[in-house]
Each structure stands twice: as structure tokens, then as C-alpha cells.
Amino acid sequence: MAVTGRVAGRGFFNRSAVVVAPDLLGCVIEHVTDDGLVAVRLTEVEAYSGDLDPASHAYRGPTPRNAVMFGAPGHLYVYFTYGMHFCANVVCEGVGVASAVLLRAGEVVEGAELATHRRGGALSRELARGPARLTVALGIGRDDNGLDVCNAGSGLRLRRVRATAQRVLAGPRVGVSAGAQTPWRFWLDGEPTVSRYRAHAPKRRAVKPAAR
DNA sequence: CCATAGATGCACT
DNA sequence: GTGCATCTATGGC
Fold first, then answer.
1. Which chain B nucleotides are covered by protein, judged by CB under 7 A?
2. Which residues does A207 contact at the CB level (< 8 Å), separation at least 6?
């Protein structure tokens, strides 16, 4: 059955990502495509702030890739990584301030059949457990970069759902090397859909043949 | 549950 | 050329 909750407007996103991030927990993101609708209740997010955040894609200033992060709040920033995955952020704060919240994980609450098909038959709680899995479940890809979550015509919207009694926990972000100490990952306590925490795994360089 | 390796395209140095 | 805001498969406990 349909999820109820007020659709988030521009003002909701026009705040610091660190403030928006915990507010997103429990909220539901919906994406409508020709295939149907999938809705995900967010259980895990991470905040990224361009100015002083070495982990942010915007840390070194504007580039073609991160341009959306510098734009208006409420738009989707989708990036491609590891040669095969897409991850989705919601842009926060005003034009010129590169701040965003990465949608890391959630629970599929509507359109489970479609999401399961997109995910190749994964188990229910694995459907959107992890940022790249979440984009697959929702049908978000390269073409969705820059879409306006606050515009009904975009097919994307965020419903604000009453905060649960669940505790919000915070800790270091996943998979980042620089800025790994900043506790800007937020998740709902006890949720089985929260991705298992993995600290950044430094890759050893291939060992060169010993010099002789 | 934990740890590791490989896949793979591209933005940026 | 280097290094990813990751996932899956595989193996061990």
C-alpha cells in the first residue's frame, strides 16, 4: 500500500548536509519509471560537505562531474564509481555550496517485485543494502544525475515520515580514506538493512620485483 | 560471521 | 598512471 507523508520541499534540503542527513532517516524516497514505482525507506545515510571535507568529491573545487553538487538544493547527484556502480546523493544548501547526503541503504517498502527483478532476485533485506544496490533497486542511473527531487515531473520524490522511536546512531563514513575520522554516517539502530560497516581498505601496491 | 581478490570505467593528477 | 563514497564470489571459522 502507498506510503503516506508530506513530500519534502526545497527548504528541507536548503540546510547543511550534516543537519539534513539524520532527518532523512525513516523518510521514503520514491522513483517512478515506465516499469513502475519503487519506494525505499532510508535507514543509512552519509553527509559530505565540500569546503572542509577531504572526503567530498567537491573538496578540490568544481569539475564537470561534481557540478550538480554546487547547484541548487534538492537535486540528485549521481556518480559512477569502481567502473560499474552508481551512487546517489541529494544536494543540500544553496547554490555555490557543495554539500550533499549519500543515500547508503534502506528498506524497500513498495514495488518489491520490481526491485527484486532489478536486483537479480536478491533477498528482501539485501535489495537496497548498500549505496550501489539502492540505486539499482530504485532504477537510478547516469541519466538521473541532476534531477529535481522537489519537482513532481522528475519521477523522484521524498516523503517525510514521522520520526520513529528508533535511535539514530552516528559513526565514521564507509570506504573513505581522507576524513575517515569524521562521524558523518548516520543510521537507524537495529535495522537489518544497514550495510555492514567496512573501514577503508588501503590497497597495497603490487610488489615490484626487488631491485638488484 | 570475517577476510580477501577481482571486476571494471573514468575523473583527475 | 592512480585510485576510487562498491559489489560479488569464494573460502575459512
1. 1-2, 4, 7-13
2. none
Residue A90 CA to residue A135 CA, distance in Å, equals 13
Footprint of strand C on the protein (CB under 7 A): A 46, 48, 55-58, 69, 77, 81-85, 87, 89, 100, 102, 119-120, 122, 126, 130-134, 173-177, 195, 200-203, 205
C-alpha pair distances (Å), A200 with each of A29, A37, A78, A84: 27, 34, 21, 19
Question: Cell for A123?
Answer: 533477498
Please give the protein residue whose CA is closest to the C1' of the nucleotide B4. Answer: A201
Which H or E run contains A23? helix A17-24
Rounded Cα gap, residues A186 and A25, in angstroms: 8
Task: Please state the separation of Cα A177 from the chain's center in Å.
Answer: 18
Residue-wise pLDDT tens digits, A88-134? 999 999 999 999 999 999 999 999 999 999 999 999 999 999 999 99
| pLDDT tens digits, one per residue of A144-200 | 999 999 999 999 999 999 777 899 999 999 988 888 889 999 999 999 999 887 766
Please give the grid coordinates belonging to residue A23: 532527518
Give me the residues near strand B, CB below 7 A: A 57, 60, 63-66, 80-84, 196, 201
